């Protein structure tokens, strides 16, 4: 049956357009139930014996949740107890429109066979489709459509069963009006909460119920702690008039009473608004999109230099005292910033948060506080009857709402992750908190992998250049199995040199738009944790068919240059190829070959040629203004049985590290230019913005404290002045300065060339750049491979590749995934560092002051690449006399003044008093300040002899 609807629509130009929409209705849509004898269905989902033990419904029954139940109670629906659920099309469409994350979770549940969730297309069923009535809102029409579907199911199952009183349909809704209308229609209907509380099989499921409104279980007469949020209409009008600003709320890690709101502007016009005090933060949570109003200029303040963490009692009425303290901290600061207050929430970014339960001291209490692992997220009040079981566990909790009169938001328990401190549990927390997709690859994804055994066919060879005769080799860190790149260098008959960079041809195996491609695009990057790798693509590709291992034939995408002996490029060409790597070397093995003068084999000669050219290329890059910065990376030696870290050391870089890096950079620049020339509107490029001048403040002050002048007018000026920066009898000074300079830099980002005009890569001093050399572990490189393949006629294009907005959206996701990957990696290093120091007792080490705060100094320990904070206002000691000089910056503690780069000696130990937030604790040994410094321990554990890494 066909229904058509005609209406007119006004166009932008002022004309009128007639639109006809056709809607098909059918009589043959299945109900999906095993007990049905009427529907001619090929397969069934809903069980005949649909028993969920319930005091309210002691008979077999199916559940039909309305849209709000799905949106707010998705945690409950995911529980294994909840089975045989009918998701009507109306609900599915509404959920898709209102919440992409919930929609994805719902689709995942529907695909789980053991859950028996069935999608019923009521909008195309002749007996369940309903027209919107005159004056009826879209929401009321949808509620009516759900009720009609529930009514149809009840009658359909009665007429199709031999036992008419057996199987029933239960409608779940939290809307009182909807419930009353359903009851009038003779439907069996319950509120979600009363149904869940009736379940016998899993009484703990009540803990996972989201609160139906903000004021639930609260004392409504208590005083209001927060201003009211403005309605969206007022907010939008205020943003349009310029009285409000819209931005992303970013809470401080160090001070729970401080945050900034990042307001995105045109080009470089972005600004940050500072917020201080509970009332001005006004119930915003990290990453929420908020509306802020600037305060008058005389109320602007500066960011606090004090580390202030929320460790107080869980009271609502102690907020004012703490707020006053936070405001007093920065009232005397000179460097004031635009300061404002949150007036409304535009979009919540709430997600399930990992953390631990603070069990209430009140006996038999069901109300407890949950402390998130992320210090930027406030503590959350939840109700649970499992407190004794959950104590000491890592759990997940979701926020339901934040009433005006409550110091903390309300939420509900989602699930337990395992015992706190357990390595597997902590790794799971780390991945969840940094939103790293880490589930096993689905069968749909794996179905697009090549069938084994696999080999290169004659048809493949027709389209590729045969480079198997070349002396190609790879140089990587030890233990690397996902080998992306290989190199070769040989002398040509004309005396010039041929240099080739050969990159794994991953795009041959991953075709656009299939499930494997979509999964790789979503993951964006491989995530490297200590002792574990979360692959972007399945292992068959990452460690086998795409990995350029030695002595096997592999497909590659080659960038080949003809160079003279001055490393000047005479010709560049790109080709799909087949290679056979002659050696898979580590950096150390390659370095030994180069240094061993007795070796004259082809591989060694190739490496020497590459190394010689790389030195020239690097010298030229630095001459052009490229920066050579520094960051201390550490490498753990992991016990093969316990997987505990047994040694920790900073990574050692060799000439061969630099050799590989130079040719990867050169290949990326060459490819960037080629794809931009061919596709100026849709090339996937990478840029590194120049830092704003204010970013350099700390670097300039630090250098000035040692009478060294740093110029930051350009990358070249910075590079030159860093090269010149030396202090007598302080050889490590230059490295420290470069570490500090690294902290001043902006994040490099992917972008679509047609959506931006600034392509410059500040750190590399290159006018154009992209990523081409690591397609096994970065999805951006796969896109670049596809663009390059089209540019040289080796592959065909597809619509999304040439779609600017889609390429731009993809770049944004890749930037997010890359950032989260970096954070996850740092968190993994921090956790393994804690494990390393746990069994070491107290160590004495020398370090350097990297930053000075009002109440602390932040110390870098070069031996371990470790940063820690020495506090001078600890609770267990009387606070010494502290004088902070913002301009220095310097901190006078009693009679001693600390400046950046001062050498100190500290004790290092693990403070595990708070199992969730274990931290490395440092105490000052030298300089000796009476009443502040601690005596050095008599016996120090023997340090292990460092091993050569790379």
UniProtKB/TrEMBL annotation:
Complex and partners: Component of the RNA exosome complex; within the complex interacts with EXOSC4, EXOSC7 and EXOSC9 of the exosome core complex (Exo-9). The catalytically inactive RNA exosome core complex (Exo-9) associates with the catalytic subunit EXOSC10/RRP6. Exo-9 may associate with DIS3 to form the nucleolar exosome complex, or DIS3L to form the cytoplasmic exosome complex. Exo-9 is formed by a hexameric base ring consisting of the heterodimers EXOSC4-EXOSC9, EXOSC5-EXOSC8 and EXOSC6-EXOSC7, and a cap ring consisting of EXOSC1, EXOSC2 and EXOSC3; DIS3 associates with the base ring of Exo-9.
Entry-linked SMART domains: PINc, RNB
Family: Belongs to the RNR ribonuclease family.
Domain of life: Eukaryota
Classification lineage: Eukaryota, Metazoa, Chordata, Craniata, Vertebrata
Subcellular compartments: Cytoplasm; Nucleus, Nucleolus; Nucleus, Nucleoplasm
GO biological process, one term: rRNA catabolic process
Domain RNB: 464-794
Cofactor: Mn(2+); Mg(2+)
Record domain PIN: where: 61-180
GO cellular component, one term: cytoplasmic exosome (RNase complex)
Provenance organism: Larimichthys crocea
UniProt keyword annotation of Hydrolase present: yes
PANTHER family on file: EXOSOME COMPLEX EXONUCLEASE RRP44 (PTHR23355:SF35), RIBONUCLEASE (PTHR23355)
Descriptive protein name: Exosome complex exonuclease RRP44
InterPro entries for the chain: Dis3_CSD2, NA-bd_OB-fold, PIN-like_dom_sf, PIN_dom, RNase_II/R, RNase_II/R_CS, RNR_Ribonuclease, Rrp44_CSD1
GO molecular function, one term: RNA binding
Record key words, sorted: Acetylation, Cytoplasm, Endonuclease, Exonuclease, Exosome, Hydrolase, Magnesium, Manganese, Nuclease, Nucleus, Phosphoprotein, RNA-binding, rRNA processing
